[in-house]
Each structure stands twice: as structure tokens, then as C-alpha cells.
Amino acid sequence: MGKPTVRLKDIADKTGFSVNTVSLALRQSPRIPEETKILIREAADALNYLPNHVAKSLVSRETKTIGLVLTDITNPALTQVAQAVETVLSERGYSTLFATSNNDLEEEKRVIEMFRSRQVDGMLIYPRSHRELEHIRRLRQRGYPVVLLVADPDAGIDAVCIDERRGAYRAVRHLIDIGHSRIGIIDTSNPKGNLEKRDGYNQAHKEAGLDVDPELLADPQGNSVIRGFWAMDRLMSMPVRPTAIFASNDSLAIGALRWTQKNNLRVPKDVAIMGFDNIEFAEHAATPISSVKYEVEMVTELAVERLLQLIAAPDGLPEPRVTMIDPELIVRDSTAGRGD
Q1: What angle do CA 17, 22, 26 make, to 5 degrees?
Q2: Which residues have a Cβ under 8 Å from the Cβ of 339 and sit 6 or more positions away?
Q3: How many CA atoms does the CB half-sphere of 256 hold within 13 Å?
Q4: For the whole prediction, is pTM greater than 0.85?
Q5: Helix intervals (H) in the chain
Q6: Across the 340 residues of the chain, what is the mean pLDDT of every consecutive 10-residue run?
Q7: Which of 248, 189, 260, 190 is nearest to 223 (CA)?
Q8: Where is the HTH lacI-type domain (predicted)?
Q9: CA 273 to CA 291: how far, in whole Å?
Q10: Residue 35 backbone phi and psi in degrees, to 5
Q11: So where are the chain's domains?
Q12: Who contacts 131 (Cβ-Cβ below 8 Å, separation ≥6)?
């Protein structure tokens, strides 16, 4: 048998105060003198009293808990997001439950249902696919507070995110502006995946009057450094090599950089490399890597703020709102002009 539950009455019996006074003191009510609060808190600590949050949530219909669903916790940018979300929510009196879909749609659906069964007040979701959102759309249609951390403006779901299309456009435009016309891209080719970065890549080419060569797309089949290494190997095995590489995240870019080191190519003189997310490792790579900055703090603050607005909405959820943050391009040694 477990230890018996300590009740408010037990603290009242120990201190000689009424149950109502004990309850008010533990809730920091201004009606109770400070010395009385201290006495009651000390008695509660001595008895190992724990507030019954389940009972409270049944009354308030709030658990003060938020679910956070990520695709891959090993992605350094998403690790930063998780840490920032937990910090911001904690400051607002909320706990965070984490789950990872491992880029699997069925697993994503499972963890979302798991969070619902835990009665979290709302969810922040980084979906596996920006195109397959029907299961999340249904949640919102039932009045459930949910905010995406990537955006499809027409999804009918609240979202706060980086404008990935704009970020990729800026990155590739920079490569074109410093003299590159044959630019490889290391990015997924899954049509149900996240095509925003490829769209930005295509847009930059179109504006510059350059044709997009489909042979210059290397699908890394993952997001790790070693996947970037082998994708770079495929691109650099072509009869006419690309002179620059745009990788859809910094881990892939670091893998591409590692390939150049193993094969005695100079960056950026022989090939320029551009990443995305601006993780710490990119800045401190052997050749510091240019990147598009993922605005972790801004995304986190705005996403949490929007989610708490949805949770507090008195008359059902308001119309969905999509906030897209214009990202900054960080230029480092890996994309200096070839003439430098």
C-alpha cells in the first residue's frame, strides 16, 4: 500500500486553523496574514502535503499542461525550440509534456491522441508534413487549442513559424549574387513533405533567369551530418559539379563541409556551402557556415502567447491566424565570393 494522502484537514488539525484558512494560505490569498501563511506552509511541508492538481483540474477544467510534438529531438534547432518552449511556459505557470513523432505520420497521430487522453490544455505541434494536416485540422474544428510551429497559410490552423520559403530564397539569391549559377540543393524530394525551401530555391533561380536542373537535387533521406556527407558525395560525382550547395539544415551543411575536407576541396574557393537554422555548430565549424537564422526566441514567445489566447478564449476559438517571421541571412566564410 502507498502512503496515505495528506489532506487540508490534516494541516488544519496540526496548526489549529480552519480548513478554509489553510486552503487560502496555500493559495497565497492576500486575506491571510503573512506569518499565518508561513506557519501553514511549514506544517504542509512537514506533512509532505502535495496539492491535488487532478482535483483542481476537474473544477477549473484546466490541467496547466501543454503538449509539445516535435519531429526529431536530435535536430539541434528543435532541441532549442523544446528548451525555449519549456522555459516560456514555466514562466506562465504551465508544465510541458514532450513527444517525438520521429518523422512518422502514424506516430504523430498516436502521440497527439495520447496528449488528448492526458487532457493537456493545448498543443504546440511541429508536424512531419506541412501538407498532411487533416488530423490536426479536425482537432481545431472540435474547438481544441493547437498552434503549429510551421505554416501552410491555407491550412485553417493557427501557426507561428519562420518563413522558410523566404529564407531559402534569400540564401540562394545570395549564392547567385556572388557569382554562382550551378547550385546544388540537399533537401527531401518527398512530395508530401515540406517544399517551402525548394520553392524558395526555384524562385531565386527564376528571378535570376536561371534554369533549375533537377539533377542538382540530392535527397539526403534524413537530416543528420552523415546524410549530408553522402548527399554531397552524389552531387560532387556529377560530370559537371555544382559550384555552390544549399542544404536545408545546418547538420546537412556540416556533412557537406566534411566531404570537402575529406576530398581536399577548398570552401568557398572550390565550392560554397549555405545552411539553414543557424545552429551553434555552423558558426564554429572548421569553415564557419553561412546560414538562415531560425528565430527560436521569437517563434517560441509568439506561439506560446497565441496558444494561451486560444485556451482562454471564452466563446470558442477565434479565426485561425498564421504569423510568418521573416528570417535573417547570416553570411560567414563558407560563401565568400570566389574572387576573394
Answers
A1: 150
A2: 179
A3: 40
A4: no
A5: 8-15, 19-26, 34-46, 53-60, 76-91, 105-117, 134-141, 164-177, 196-207, 225-235, 250-262, 280-283, 296-312
A6: 71 90 85 90 84 50 84 84 92 91 91 89 90 89 90 84 94 96 89 80 96 94 92 96 96 96 95 95 93 92 94 87 94 75
A7: 248
A8: 6-60
A9: 9
A10: -65, -35
A11: 8-51, 61-162+295-325, 164-294+329-335
A12: 152, 192, 193, 195
Cell of 219: 535527397
What pLDDT score was predicted for residue 24? 87
What are the two backbone dihedrals, phi and then psi, of residue 93, each rounded to the nearest 5 degrees?
85, 20
Superfamily of domain 164-294+329-335: Response regulator (3.40.50.2300)
* 61-162+295-325: CATH number: 3.40.50.2300
Residue 77's pLDDT is what?
Answer: 85
pLDDT number for residue 313: 86
**Cell digits of residue 39:** 506557519
